[in-house]
């Protein structure tokens, strides 16, 4: 699949000290009263007056702040998409939490914090290479994914209609649906890339809130943090960490596509998952984008067929190499204008895979993140459906590990991120879609340890220039030049001794070569 196609197509936790996922939308706020008033400020606990935990100093119900700076890119409409100025088409008053408090009712802590007052740093959870997991850790991860696929999300629901039809035909029935914890994770990704609905069969496709711009790295980082905490809560282990897949093998095969990990190929149909894997029965959601566009509706979480995948690269296609990661990490600029898929010498665009890994443009080449999705093909090849494949989780954890390494090496200021004129959703202060309550890109532009996790990974070291060889070359050239100068001086001396006149004093001969002297 070409980079252009990728581009155009392209739940937190717990009670007590584990924050709940902050996304679209808390079930408690999806009532007619809340939707009509456009206010989602639930009380914390049993006391109705304790709105947003205000009686405990945890937060207040306030007006939602949304970025109003101009954007650039191919989305040129205004007030046509319910994700513009997110989330104000749905709610314009929500809980604003103080300090390290977080959540839709300020009853939880920000990532990386714990305690009754959210004032204690949590021990970092460590994301490991999936191949380094012990048998027990591996089973815990795979079992947690499968359990999440089959467990209804306890706190959140998905909207199934455009914002103008959210209350149903007679205005009394909110159009929402329950879905599983993992399908909720899939739905969030779908919603960030779906087309703008302008009418039956009239989608506007030039829009993407999580790809083709600076927000690619922060959006997927927050997306993974939610799933990680949902799984922590589900299995009752707050030290649980998602593993990563180091896809920089340069090989023509997927080394996590085994029955011991994320599923081998079926013998009778290599595009399906082996029946020896728990993932062989996984069905996908949010795949029928054209059908949703025709009916002017949203994905409602209905299953639409089995998960599909390619186990080997097509036509000799190979996964990225260690050198690709090294080249990407050598790029010093986080992003460059126009902050889109045609940005050059941009770390973000090289990591996303629209440029070569070294930041040079080539419209015929995919690299790093995009190349891996293309390699896997099947469900993974299209942004609106890619998160259905559990490989998405470990693939994006490694992408995030590369981002974190870059952050640690270059320690960029917030100003490295454009405040305006990035594509819609990608300005620094834009609220990431569809996360709720709102969170800006800037809030995730941090090193991972500030968000409560780290990576057990060794990425290619920076290339240190070897000055020995260049210095010897320069010295050699200087010696040669000095020798040449001395030779010319000697020859000039000999000419003067033999009676040669300086060139400026000679009379030029105008005869042609064909004429006799």
Care to describe what's here?
The chain is mainly alpha-helical. The chain has helices at 3-9, 32-37, 135-149, 181-193, 215-235, 289-295, 322-329, 347-352, 368-376, 391-410, 468-497, and strands spanning 39-40, 59-63, 93-97, 101-102, 108-109, 113-114, 120-121, 125-127, 158-159, 176-177, 196-197, 203-204, 453-455. The chain has a three-stranded mixed β-sheet. α3 (135-149) packs across α5 (215-235).
Number of helices: 11
Largest sheet: 3 strands, mixed
Strand content: 5-15%
Instruction: Summarize the helix and strand pattern as letters.
Output: HHEEEEEEEEHEEHEEHHHHHHEH
Classify the oligomer.
single chain
Strand order, sheet with most strands? 1-3-2
The tally of strands reads 13
The low-confidence parts are 1-23, 464-469, 490-517
Instruction: Tell the overall outline.
Output: globular
Q: How many angstroms does the end-to-end distance come to? A: 72 Å
State the helicity in percent bands: 25-40%
Which structural category do the helix and sheet elements fall into? Answer: mainly alpha
Mean pLDDT: 87
Radius of gyration, in angstroms, nearest whole number:
29 Å
Map the helices and strands.
Blueprint: H1 3-9, H2 32-37, E1 39-40, E2 59-63, E3 93-97, E4 101-102, E5 108-109, E6 113-114, E7 120-121, E8 125-127, H3 135-149, E9 158-159, E10 176-177, H4 181-193, E11 196-197, E12 203-204, H5 215-235, H6 289-295, H7 322-329, H8 347-352, H9 368-376, H10 391-410, E13 453-455, H11 468-497
Parallel strand pairs: 1-3, 8-13
Antiparallel strand pairs: 2-3, 4-5, 6-7, 9-10, 11-12
């Amino acid at each position: 699949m070409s980079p252009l196609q990728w581009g155009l197509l392209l739940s937190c936790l717990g009670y007590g000290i584990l924050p709940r996922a902050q996304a679209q939308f808390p079930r408690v706020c999806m009532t007619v009263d809340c939707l009509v008033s456009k206010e989602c400020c639930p009380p914390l606990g049993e006391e109705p007056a304790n709105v947003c935990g205000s009686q405990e100093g945890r937060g207040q119900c306030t007006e939602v702040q949304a970025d109003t700076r101009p954007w650039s890119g191919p989305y040129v409409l205004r007030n046509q998409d319910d994700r513009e100025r997110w989330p104000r088409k749905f709610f314009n008053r929500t809980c604003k939490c103080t300090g390290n408090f977080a959540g839709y009712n300020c009853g939880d802590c920000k990532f990386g914090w714990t305690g009754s007052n959210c004032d204690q740093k949590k021990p970092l959870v460590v994301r490991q290479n999936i191949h380094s997991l012990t048998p027990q850790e591996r089973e815990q991860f795979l079992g947690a994914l499968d359990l999440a696929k089959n467990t209804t999300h306890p706190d959140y629901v998905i909207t199934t209609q455009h914002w103008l039809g959210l209350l149903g035909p007679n205005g009394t029935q909110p159009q929402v649906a329950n879905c599983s914890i993992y399908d909720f994770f899939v739905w969030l990704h779908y919603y960030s890339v779906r087309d703008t609905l302008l009418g039956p069969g009239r989608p506007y496709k030039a829009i993407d809130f999580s790809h083709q711009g600076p927000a690619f790295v922060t959006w997927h980082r927050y997306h993974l943090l939610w799933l990680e905490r949902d799984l922590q809560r589900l299995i009752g282990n707050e030290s649980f960490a998602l593993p990563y897949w180091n896809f920089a093998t340069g090989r023509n095969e997927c080394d996590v596509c085994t029955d011991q990990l994320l599923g081998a190929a079926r013998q009778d149909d290599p595009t399906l998952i082996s029946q020896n894997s728990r993932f062989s029965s996984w069905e996908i959601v949010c795949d029928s984008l054209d059908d949703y566009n025709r009916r002017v509706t949203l994905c409602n979480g209905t299953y639409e067929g089995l998960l599909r995948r390619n186990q080997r690269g097509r036509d000799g296609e190979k996964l990225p190499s260690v050198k690709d990661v090294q080249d990407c990490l050598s790029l010093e600029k986080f992003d460059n204008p126009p902050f889109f898929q045609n940005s050059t010498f941009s770390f973000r665009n090289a990591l996303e895979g629209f440029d070569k890994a070294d930041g040079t443009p080539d419209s015929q080449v995919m690299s790093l993140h995009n190349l891996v999705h293309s390699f896997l093909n099947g469900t993974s090849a299209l942004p609106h459906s890619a998160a259905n494949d559990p490989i998405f989780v470990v693939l994006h954890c490694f992408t995030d590990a590369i981002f974190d390494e870059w952050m640690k090496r270059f320690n960029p200021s917030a100003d490295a991120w454009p405040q305006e004129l990035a594509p819609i959703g990608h300005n620094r202060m834009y609220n990431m879609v569809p996360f709720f309550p709102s969170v800006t890109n800037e809030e995730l532009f941090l090193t991972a340890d500030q968000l409560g996790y780290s990576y057990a990974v060794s990425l290619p070291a920076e290339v240190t220039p070897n000055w020995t060889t260049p210095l010897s070359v320069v010295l050699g050239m200087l010696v040669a030049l000095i020798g040449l100068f001395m030779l010319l001086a000697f020859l000039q001396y000999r000419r003067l001794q033999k009676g040669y006149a300086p060139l400026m004093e000679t009379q030029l001969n105008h005869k042609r070569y064909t004429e006799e002297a």
